[in-house]
């Protein structure tokens, strides 16, 4: 089993999108690569903690190789938007790929280079080692399953 953390704007839709893909074993939303300890949603919304709203993904690489997972990721984000996705604006809504295993770094960088070929504007999606990840409050977990009409910037159907 492999793990990756992805940021793609509001984490509710990112989690719901990935939870529907065969080979995804587990998802949890939280806050990635910030500068404080144990942030709350309210802390992150102040836009001064450095955290991105992100989704932890545990997946079976035999069913869903990382490059296929990344194809799905690129399909739901606008990688040239800095600190925003959909109607959400702020550094917590930036796009990012955060790896835990060093061997994933080259795959992520190559994928970013390939997607760049599709855009005239610069792709600003971060690719970085996961420095920290704090699980978000329980009410954020599986939010769109609990609230099917909740806000989502990703087309899920």
From TrEMBL:
Question: What EC identifiers does the entry list?
Answer: 1.8.4.11
Q: Which residues cross the membrane?
A: none
An example Gene Ontology CC term for this record: cytoplasm
A Pfam family of the record is PMSR
Q: Where in the numbering of this chain does the Peptide methionine sulphoxide reductase MsrA domain appear?
A: 3-153
Entry's Gene Ontology BP terms: cellular response to oxidative stress
Q: Which UniProt keywords apply?
A: Oxidoreductase
Q: Where is the active site?
A: 10
What is this protein for, i.e. what is its function? Has an important function as a repair enzyme for proteins that have been inactivated by oxidation. Catalyzes the reversible oxidation-reduction of methionine sulfoxide in proteins to methionine.
Q: What is this protein called?
A: Peptide methionine sulfoxide reductase MsrA
Which species is this record about? Clostridium cellulovorans (strain ATCC 35296 / DSM 3052 / OCM 3 / 743B)
């Amino acid at each position: 089993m492999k793990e990756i953390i992805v940021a793609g704007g509001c984490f509710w839709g990112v989690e719901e999108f990935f939870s529907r893909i065969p080979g995804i074993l587990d998802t949890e939303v939280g806050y990635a690569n910030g500068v404080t300890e144990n942030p709350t949603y309210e802390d992150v919304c102040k836009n001064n903690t450095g955290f991105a709203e992100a989704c932890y993904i545990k997946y079976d690489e035999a069913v869903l190789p990382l490059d296929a997972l990344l194809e799905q990721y690129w399909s739901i984000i606008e990688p040239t938007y800095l600190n925003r996705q959909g109607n959400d604006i702020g550094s917590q809504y930036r796009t990012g790929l955060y790896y835990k295993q060093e061997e994933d770094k080259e795959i992520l960088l190559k994928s970013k280079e390939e997607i760049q070929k599709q855009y005239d504007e610069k792709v600003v999606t971060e690719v970085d080692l996961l420095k920290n990840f704090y699980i978000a409050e329980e009410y954020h977990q599986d939010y769109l399953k609990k609230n099917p009409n909740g806000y989502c910037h990703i087309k899920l159907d």
